[in-house]
Write a structure and sequence with these properties.
Number of helices: 9
Distance between the termini: 50 Å
Structural class: mainly alpha
Largest sheet: 2 strands, antiparallel
Strand content: under 5%
Radius of gyration: 19 Å
Strand order of the largest sheet: 1-2
Length: about 260
């Protein structure tokens, strides 16, 4: 526990500073997390004896991160197509099964585009408060789910995937996040309260889903943690699993709500 607290005291201020600065510092931070996250994903695949081209996948992930971060959508589509062709050609020469190649592609895209959309929110939106909202939502959801679930949790959420998670924890974490970040969204993002509550509720629930998805991969790979990048907390994918799904959802929802507000 002491190690976890010390790590939080070091890394939480760094993350908050990157959110506040935005721009190149935020991009550099997300690039580092992408690099480590893809390495962790590759290590889990290797644990199941899946062949993994580390250099190709890391280079592709950093390219995708950059293109998503700076909104080069047309180039991104071509980059993904080239990556798929190269990876399938490499897999064919090395007798890699097609399902393993597809799983690799999905994992690399999920990690790189997830961090890329975190960067996009921080760079291209009018206020850094929106990215802060998304991160706070995920943190409050995780903390609330842990505290409430450990105190009153009795009904298992997904015992085969993550035995410690409970339905009470899920509901408690989401309610905490909706109340706190809903007020935050209405005040700092100038969203109607109805839109704000829908936004933060969906972000929170998808954060739970992202956490469960990573638990599925870890259980399949037979590992407890994805890595050791954050002492006492595990790897990058352990700490950012919820955010990697919540951030894309936040990006989509915010754009939808902006359009709806203009129409109304």
């Amino acid at each position: 526990m002491k190690q976890r607290v010390l790590t939080s005291w070091v890394f939480v201020p760094i993350i908050l500073l990157l959110v506040y600065w935005g721009g190149v510092p935020l991009y550099a931070g997300m690039a580092l997390l992408t690099l480590v996250g893809v390495q962790e994903f590759g290590s889990m695949l290797r644990n199941r004896r899946v062949q993994w081209n580390m250099y190709l996948n890391i280079i592709a992930a950093l390219i995708f991160l950059t293109l998503v971060s700076w909104r080069m959508d047309s180039i991104l589509i071509w980059a993904i197509l080239v990556y798929i062709i190269i990876l399938f050609s490499w897999g064919w020469r090395n007798f890699v099964h097609y399902p393993e190649i597809i799983f690799t592609i999905l994992g690399v895209l999920y990690i790189s585009c997830g961090f890329g959309l975190i960067t996009t929110i921080g760079i291209h939106y009018d206020s850094w408060h929106y990215l802060l909202l998304v991160i706070l939502n995920v943190w409050i959801t995780d903390t609330g789910a842990f505290l409430i679930g450990s105190k009153i949790g009795k009904h298992k959420l997904a015992p085969r995937i993550s035995p410690k998670k409970t339905i009470e924890g899920l509901l408690g974490g989401t309610i905490c996040a909706v109340i706190i970040t809903g007020i935050f969204a209405a005040k700092f993002l100038n969203l109607e309260i109805g839109y704000a509550l829908i936004l933060v509720a969906i972000i929170s629930l998808l954060g739970h889903v992202g956490d469960l998805l990573e638990s599925v991969v870890k259980r399949w790979a037979g590992v407890k943690d994805s890595g050791k990048f954050f002492p006492g907390h595990g790897g990058v994918l352990d700490r950012f699993d919820s955010l990697l799904l919540a951030a894309p959802a936040a990006w989509v929802l915010y754009n939808i709500f902006e359009v709806l507000e203009r129409l109304v």
